[in-house]
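Moderator note: this is an archived Q&A kept for reference. The question asked for a predicted structure of one protein chain; the sequence and the answer are reproduced below.
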Amino acid sequence: MSDKTVNKLKIFNDPVYGFINVPNEAVFDLIENPFFQRLRHIKQLGLTHLVYPGALHTRFHHAMGAMYLTTQALEILRFKGHEISEEEALGVTQAILLHDIGHGPFSHALENALVHQMNHEDLSEMFMYRLKDQNHEGMDTAISIFKNNYPKKFLHQLVAGQLDMDRLDYLNRDSFFTGVSEGVISWDRIIKMLNIVKDQLVIDEKGIYSIEKFIIARRLMYWQVYLHKTVIAAETLLTSILKRAKVLALAGEDLFSTPPLKRLLRKKYYKADFEKDPTLLEDFSLLDDYDVYASIKVWAEHKDQVLSRLCKNLTNRTLFRIEMQRTPFPEEYIENIRVHTSRLFDISHAETDYFVIHGSTRNNAYDPAVGSIRILSRTGDLTDIASASDQLNISVLSHTVEKYFLCYPKGVLP
């Protein structure tokens, strides 16, 4: 059957928004591409399901939802008289659809565990260029918008900004699947209040209360879901597993793994390596959660006691104990835990690095320094949300909150 006989204007039944239309055939072709279909097998929230059992939704769900919200935003902006061509509409829709295509297994949990000095945005850009090479329609405009090189800057702000469709979807979707009602936002009203002034996305004055709730919901979702202490403990354990596996593989150990995972374990790869060798991106595109978790189940019986213990802890949900506080942990306290860990597990002091991990995490619900949310008054004046809001907590929420964490095995301390 030829492509011309295939109905590409499909309808998806999304649990959050209901029926989602594929806006045109070029978008359908991208959705059908194996690079994009891989997102069906990558969890949106990494190991968060170990805390919130319903958080099993995927990057595929999120990308489709963000695409839908973008089509709704374009419709509103056009209705308000702003000129957006069909080429631009396709480009920004493709850009939001592909904005997370570079995520590796378990999303942010393993951001730098398999590739080095690269983030998922770097890989997303590489995938977009590869899709362009595959002659997908409109990719030049999509890439330009994604990289913020396109003349109309508000299009990039729909993809990456304080009010982008990425944030609107993940707050709404993640609150839905985790059951954390504090994350619910008025996404439909926010979109209806979108406007453009001097090539910048702004919010009509009537939408100010929805924006206040959006900022507060973002703060609450970070502490209750994304930076939940048990989620941090679980993802720290997962990172330690990959770190140990990579050390063993680099030393010549033939670890069980799928071929693409084995390749990325045996050598450290950087952005320059991906740019020189196209097959690296091909192998990365074959990786998903299943490659890693299947390997972890086998590694649980590995002769290396460090790797084996870490993997058994994850598969049995025996997660690290975690302490969190507003100030750094004293070095003496951390060293005491290392000593006890070394004795309890009969491992070297150096090997305690896999079991005793400390660091910090930040929550910044609204940072005007990296892009402001401006409120458009009826008189045409623009005011930053932190000033326009009559709720004092918005100005408070613009300050970064940093917390320090310390993870170590349960049973190490009485």
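Archived answer notes: The chain has a mean pLDDT of 94.
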